[in-house]
Design a protein that fits this description.
The chain is mainly beta. The chain is built from 2 helices and 40 strands.
């Protein structure tokens, strides 16, 4: 460094100038990297936890869109967006009107089965099956957030329909007759333009379903699920030079299964029903459903959306996760990470009639049985008022509003006040004949267990004072704990129940636990006021 005797300023020499430039450049790069999304070396499954089965995905530009089946719940077919396939944000529900989603008499064996989402020439397409209320249909939108069109009903039946577009034609595949069948349709009218043709029956597993067609390197690839959506669920793939076959099986099928010696001890099981997508950087990925066991071979959170890396070399078969079973922790070079907001707290002031997309109701809700207090009048301090319509077990449009249980460990709390001959509170709900209900009536606070033919009050305490009662449900993944507070300050544990009671293996059903407010009783027999609904994951 050289100093001037006149000005007390310094003048750097050439070497120092070069060093300073290099330092500034390195500093600038470091700052840019700190702000830019970076790729991680691992991620955790599930990427969308809780009851989010049968995922289907498409990419438009640099954004991925994903949909799930919804069975008896309203609204139907939740839709998510992501930039990196790991972080997902719900942006709406595809079926949000009764005209799109008739659910009369639906339970968790009926309603909306596996959907497929595709994008073609500026239009988003969602195709699915309403089992018990119409069969296969399709809706469209120019914005994935909606609104989506009225249903276009389709002739070819079977479940899990999918679409493939090529050269101005639209093809549909589904599984009538215990095999995968193909036909050409008019995507605007739904008219079937060709006879249905049998493509493939899989590699011997039962229930060949969930078909998707892709074209790569001159081959048409047909990805399906086999084995039933349970322990033996797995994915197989075949290919052909012609879209209508004949299709040859991959000699290394199944391309994904955890029902094996290598996978049998993992928490994740029931891997299947997948969909492939290519990222902007050329990498391939698969979304698929799986479930996590808790307390042995039981799963109560439902079938969840998981992610696996795929290697797909030119002219060769795709290899999922290096040919190995999938686990909760996956070692892979992910896409640049972009975190998105996730709604954990769904306070009743936001819904159930409007607000957060995560809210669910059973079948088609009766609008007059759900009331929001937008004024918060002094004499009516409630956020949501529920009017009863029978019981959860009767399953005829019961008054229920809740959300999916997305974490094994959580706390859910509310404050409820009943008027008239009504029972109301919080339900751990798996299916109409499998639920645990913490409720308040005129005379008691009680926990009721409904499990198939078993229906009894586990424990109760007298309701010694009028006014509201605080109710709380906690879980550590093994047990549910049911608490109450009569004075609004101190909670007391009423009872605890094993989570396995609400598992698919015990209670049955195709979905997973949802947690919600409910009111039971005869119509016009009274109502229940809920001051808040606070859900927090641990």
């Amino acid at each position: 460094m050289e100093f001037s005797s006149k000005s007390l300023t310094f003048v750097p020499n050439k070497n120092e100038c070069l060093m300073n430039r290099q330092y500034l450049f390195a500093l600038l790069c470091a700052l840019m990297l700190a702000w830019m999304p970076v790729s991680a070396q691992e991620y955790r499954n599930p990427v969308i936890p809780g009851y989010h089965p049968d995922p289907s995905v498409c990419r438009v530009g640099d954004t991925f869109y994903l949909v799930n089946s919804s069975f008896q719940y309203y609204p139907g077919v939740p839709i998510f967006q992501s930039k990196d396939m790991v972080h997902w944000q719900q942006i709406g529900n595809v079926l949000d009107r009764e005209s799109q989603l008739p659910l009369k008499g639906a339970n968790s064996w009926l309603g909306i089965y596996a959907p497929t989402i595709r994008y073609h020439e500026g239009v988003y397409y969602m195709i699915t099956t309403n089992v018990g209320n119409g069969g296969n249909f399709m809706v469209t939108a120019t914005d994935p957030c909606g609104p989506w069109s009225e249903p276009v009903w389709l002739k070819q039946q079977g479940i899990d329909p999918s679409l493939y577009f090529e050269n101005g034609k639209c093809y549909m595949v589904s599984n009538p007759g215990d095999a995968i069948w193909l036909c050409e349709i008019n995507p605007k009218t739904g008219e079937q333009l060709s006879a249905s043709k049998k493509l493939w029956q899989g590699d011997g597993g039962r229930y060949p379903e969930g078909p998707h067609i892709y074209k790569k390197d001159g081959y048409y690839y047909l990805l399906i699920s086999e084995g039933g959506t349970e322990l033996a669920h797995h994915l197989t793939i075949a290919r052909s030079r012609n879209i209508d076959g004949p299709y040859e099986s991959n000699p290394k099928n199944p391309i994904l299964t955890n029902c094996s010696r290598l996978g049998q001890s993992l928490q994740i099981q029931g891997t299947g029903h997948g969909d492939l997508v290519q990222a902007p950087d050329g990498s391939w990925w698969m979304v698929f459903l799986a479930y996590r066991n808790y307390g042995g071979s039981y799963h109560h959170l439902g079938r969840e959306t998981c992610l696996a890396p795929v290697e797909w070399k030119e002219g060769e078969w795709p290899v999922v996760n290096g040919g190995l079973p999938i686990d909760t922790l996956v070692k892979a070079n992910t896409l640049p990470s972009v975190s998105l907001e996730k709604h954990l707290e769904a306070d009743a002031v936001d819904a159930p009639t409007t607000g957060a997309f995560e809210w669910l109701q059973l079948q088609n809700p009766i609008p007059g049985n759900y009331r929001r207090n937008d004024t918060m009048a002094v004499e009516e301090k409630y956020f949501v008022r529920l009017f009863p319509h029978g019981s959860l077990t009767e399953n005829q449009q019961p008054s229920f509003a809740g959300r999916r249980q997305e974490s094994a460990c959580f706390t859910l709390e509310t404050d409820v006040c009943t008027k008239g001959n009504v029972e109301a509170g919080l339900s751990v709900y798996q299916i109409h004949d499998g639920h645990l209900d913490l409720f308040v009536s005129q005379k008691q606070v009680a926990l009721r267990c409904k499990l198939k033919s078993i229906d009894y009050v586990v424990k109760s305490v007298p309701r010694l004072r009028k006014g509201s009662v605080k109710l709380r449900i906690r879980s550590n993944g093994e047990m549910y704990f049911f608490d109450y507070s009569l004075d609004g300050k101190k909670f007391h544990e009423l009872a605890s129940m094993n989570c396995s009671l609400m598992s698919t293996e015990v209670a049955g059903g195709f979905t997973g636990v949802t947690l919600g407010m409910f009111a039971e009783g005869k119509p016009r027999s009274g109502y229940a006021d809920f001051t808040y609904f606070h859900y927090e994951e641990k």
